[in-house]
Amino acid sequence: MELAQVRLLVTDFAACYRFYAEVLGLKPQSGAKGGPYEKFSPATGSAGIALQDRSMMAAVLGELGDTATGHRSLVVLRVDALDTYCEQIASRGATLLHGPSPMTDRMRVAHLKDPEGNLVELQEWLLLRA
Predict the structure, then answer these.
(1) Does the CA dihedral 7-13-15-21 come out positive or negative?
(2) How far is the C-alpha of 48 from the C-alpha of 95, rounded, in Å?
(3) Whole-structure pTM value
(4) What pLDDT was estimated at residue 5?
(5) What b/e string do you get for 96-112 counting C-beta neighbours within 10 Å, with b at 16 or more?
(6) Using CA atoms, how far apart are residues 127 and 90, in angstroms rounded to an integer?
(7) In whole angstroms, how far apart are CA 89 and each of 21, 60, 75?
(8) Can you tell me the distance from the alpha carbon of 10 to that of 52, in angstroms, rounded to the nearest whole number?
(9) pLDDT at 130
(10) What is d(CA 121, CA 119) in angstroms, rounded to the nearest whole number?
(11) For the chain, how long is the longest CA-to-CA vector?
């Protein structure tokens, strides 16, 4: 078994596309800015994040036609230089909710939301201190 992707069901596809491609800097697979589907990949690693228009899945599973509320997911991205990356994405329109700050002695984090309210955690892994 292999994890292919994490898929987020979204209502405003264009705003979410812009966030993941232009603000976070992930690479879109096909450039389908209008949807109804797009997969994004970081520069390294094999995991991906995909967006799918919520109405497309609601046609399959009727219960998804209801308005989504609350925090439904947490997307986690690892970055090498958290402070620098946070400065870069803030200059491209991201609003940090928290951090960058230590979470444990091995990790620093920052949190933000995408246009649909999905939480995004940015992690910087640290070496153990002697």
Answers:
(1) positive
(2) 22
(3) 0.79
(4) 82
(5) eeebbeebeeeebbbbb
(6) 26
(7) 11, 35, 16
(8) 6
(9) 46
(10) 7
(11) 55
